[in-house]
Give the backbone structure.
Amino acid sequence: MQQRRGSTTDKSLHHDPSPSGPEISVVAPFYNEALNVEQFFTRMLPVLEKLACNYEIICVNDGSRDDTLDRLLDFRERNASIKVVNLSRNFGKDIALSSGLDFSSGAAVIPIDSDLQDPPELIEAMLEKWREGFDVVYATRRSRQGESWLKQGTARLFYRSLNKLTGIHVPPNTGDFRLLDRRVVNALNELPERTRFMKGLFAWVGFKQTSVLYDRDARHAGSSKWNYWQLWNFALDGITSLSTAPLRVWSYIGMAISLISFVYAGFLVIRTVILGIDVPGYASLMVIILFLGGIQMITLGVIGEYLGRIFNEVKRRPLYLVRETHGFEADGE
């Protein structure tokens, strides 16, 4: 069994691929996508062949429970440019994507979802922007087919909030589908954190970035692996991995509540001096106690989110484990 990311090593940020190495690396995570495998290669391979350059397609099987791996290996036997990384279990999309970046060797690396909502035909336009001198070319959606108004609305709200809280511009309506220069990939591979919010990391590393527009199609087959609870946790990961604002805001809330309490206490003193002793109402007392108790519980919850992430970081476990690889120089099981 192989493992990567146990420790970081010195990697140059200026990579000149060898003449025999691929110019383009396509990285695609797969999780229970057996129904999409054939269509994925049916659309991807003609696009890459048309470019007339060396390429590799790194398919990361993220612990699929269907026959996704078997179908990937079947296409691997037909085309040597297809390489497969089989993780030991399901680690999640962002970690699977990170593993694909680790194994990539192209001068330009293109992460793409395997559900075909992102059009492979856009790769040619990305390469043109890359050759103009841009280090990152991300694909921005003009429209999103097959998604409810609620999902689109909450996505807009999330990215607007994320950008205000973090001070880092994470492009809205933009997924993982983009082109990354080798220097950018090397920089991303040096980041050691275990909570991988890749959209935020793509923005954090900087470099010269631009966008291309496209209309996002509905899934070719199958159903989305993301429900609203998972999207909520994804949003929490994004905000807490890039910003400490949720911790800082409770300091301001605490000061505001203390100021209000001080003013109210002064009011009670003056009222008692003027009107005499008054017995306060039971209902108002309970409301205040419950309100402050709720504030304290929320505050502890926010602190707990950050403590949990610190707990995961200090264990220093490998980011992922690889069960086997296919198509690389040192394959193993």
Q: What stands out?
A: The beta strands are 2-4, 24-30, 55-61, 82-87, 108-111, 136-144, 174-181, 209-216, 320-326. The first strand starts at residue 2 and ends at 4. The chain has two domains: 2-243+315-326, 246-314. The radius of gyration is 25 Å.
